[in-house]
Design a protein that fits this description.
alpha+beta, single chain, 14 helices, 22 strands, 35% helix, 492 residues, 11-stranded mixed beta sheet
């Protein structure tokens, strides 16, 4: 039974399905292009606060969509920026159609406010939410909407590439690694699917939002995941596409993420998870969603030391008391979905209220993690590798996978692989375009020995080889360049 105090907190932060969130939105000034579509196919909602350096790239990706501006409504909602965002948007207003510029008269303190203004003003059949520093592939909106048109699903998930200073990598691989699918039951989704649920790579039908009174809750953190998980539950089935649609910006000069992980961040997440836990029945989807999110919170607040909430026993106790307040006792063991042994160990200490053990484990595991990373120290036992034993009283933690290149003969690569995970496949991936991927043929020769067939056109400067294991994790191969370079040099 949820407490009255918690109910009041949910109401205060606009979790409830009433009109309170609409009444609390600030007023705005609206400027539009000379021509806008009355019935657009897609409404693109962009929340902005001081993202001027990224706006041109983002807006260029929208005005040049292959779907065409006549089918798009671009709602740019500015949260009272103090930079030159307005000047940039006004230039696009004068040059392009279909842009609507909403300048809020008060800052709302997060993306939730501008996004809610967008929901109230959207006219499209479909909705997408684009962060102001991200951008779309030019075919994204056409591709996503055509898939939902054909499937009839209310929600779709599509390919995301993460960009860090121009270097691209795959993000949220569970969205697209299993191939194109329609009508996929959300109860069948893997745990890894729930590691993101941000606005990137998602399109949903506006009727789904309107009929269920969905909106973004009044907090800076977890508002998007709360929104999209509720939409996922209402949709019941989803479509998935394999093509790249969205670029997620994680440039080094963007706002530092680690220092924003503070106590407010922690409480916001617990509040969101507590709401979802009490709103939805115990089933496969909720178990996997909560497990993945709890795992990330354990990592951030019980294992990390580089965040904006100083590590201490006090922080650990605060974490457990907050967990008990918002989530309470679970009907399942979330640790069976965790991806690393260290997180499982910490969870076991946490449910036993053994805070001193967490402090001790955190210290010694941090030391041996650094010893592995910088000194290459590991221990091998029974075809498994472990972090080095520095303090024997601290539980051993297995390394998920260690793969070592042993030989390369006539386009056949020989590997030793030590892991407790299930290997799904091997692939080569273009270093500049990670969505250009090819699965490699392989043979398992013994428990730890594998051979890979390497194509004739493989070039190390253009391609990398990865092992894809359970949980959609990627693993690189040690000594690969050394082995292949040595053989190539001898051949020449």
């Amino acid at each position: 039974m949820i407490s009255k105090k918690l109910e009041e907190e949910f109401a205060q932060n606009n979790y409830l399905e009433d009109t309170k969130w609409q009444l609390e939105l600030p007023t705005y000034e609206k400027t539009i292009s000379t021509r806008v579509a009355n019935k657009p196919k897609i409404s693109v909602i962009i929340a902005n606060y001081n993202n001027a350096p990224y706006l041109e790239k983002m807006l260029d990706s929208l005005v040049h969509q292959t779907l065409g501006l006549d089918a798009i409504q671009l709602l740019f909602i500015d949260d009272k920026s103090t930079d030159n965002s307005a000047e940039i948007v006004e230039k696009y207003l004068q040059k392009y159609s279909s842009i609507e510029f909403y300048q809020l008269k008060e800052n709302t303190g997060g993306a939730h406010g501008p996004r809610n203004v967008g929901i109230l003003n959207a006219r499209g059949e479909y909705l997408v939410f684009l962060d102001a520093d991200d951008w779309y592939d030019e075919n994204a909106l056409k591709y996503m909407s055509e898939i939902l048109d054909k499937s009839g699903d209310d929600m779709g998930f599509f390919g995301i590439a993460q960009s860090i200073d121009g270097k691209l990598s795959l993000k949220s691989k569970a969205y697209f690694f299993d191939g194109a699918q329609t009508g996929r039951d959300i109860q069948e989704l893997p745990t890894a699917f729930y590691e993101w649920l941000g606005p990137q790579g998602i399109m949903l039908r506006k009727d789904l939002v309107d009929e269920n009174k969905f909106h973004f809750v009044n907090q800076r953190v977890a508002d998007d995941v709360t929104f999209f998980y509720q939409a996922l539950r209402a949709a019941k089935t989803i479509s998935q596409g394999t093509e790249l649609t969205t670029y997620l910006n994680r440039d080094a000069d963007n706002i530092s993420l680690s220092k924003s992980i503070n106590r407010t961040f922690m409480i916001s997440w617990f509040r969101a998870l507590g709401f979802i836990n009490q709103k939805f029945p115990d089933d496969s989807s909720k178990e996997k969603f909560l497990s993945r999110r709890i795992e990330w919170l354990i990592y951030d607040f019980l294992l990390r030391r580089d965040i904006g909430y100083r590590f201490s026993k006090k922080r650990i106790i605060d974490f457990k008391e907050s967990f008990d307040k918002y989530i309470g006792e679970l009907a399942f063991d979330p640790s069976k979905h965790f991806r690393t042994g260290a997180r499982v160990v910490v969870w076991q200490y946490l449910i036993a209220d053994d805070y001193d053990a967490i402090v001790k484990f955190n210290h010694w595991h941090s030391v041996r993690h650094l010893a592995k990373r910088y000194l290459g120290l590991t221990e091998k036992k029974d075809n498994r590798y472990y972090f080095p034993t520095i303090n024997p009283s601290v539980p051993k933690v297995a390394i998920n996978m260690r793969a070592i290149a042993k030989d390369y003969v006539k386009n056949e690569l020989f590997l030793e692989i030590y892991t407790h995970e299930n290997i799904k496949n091997f692939e080569m991936r273009n270093r500049k375009n990670p969505f250009e991927r090819r699965q490699l043929n392989y043979q398992k020769q013994s428990e730890c020995n594998y051979s890979l067939d390497i194509p004739e056109d493989f070039e190390r400067k253009n391609w990398e080889i990865l092992i894809i294991s359970s949980h959609y994790q990627e693993h690189r191969i040690e000594k690969l360049d050394k082995i292949m370079t040595k053989k190539e040099d001898k051949a020449s």
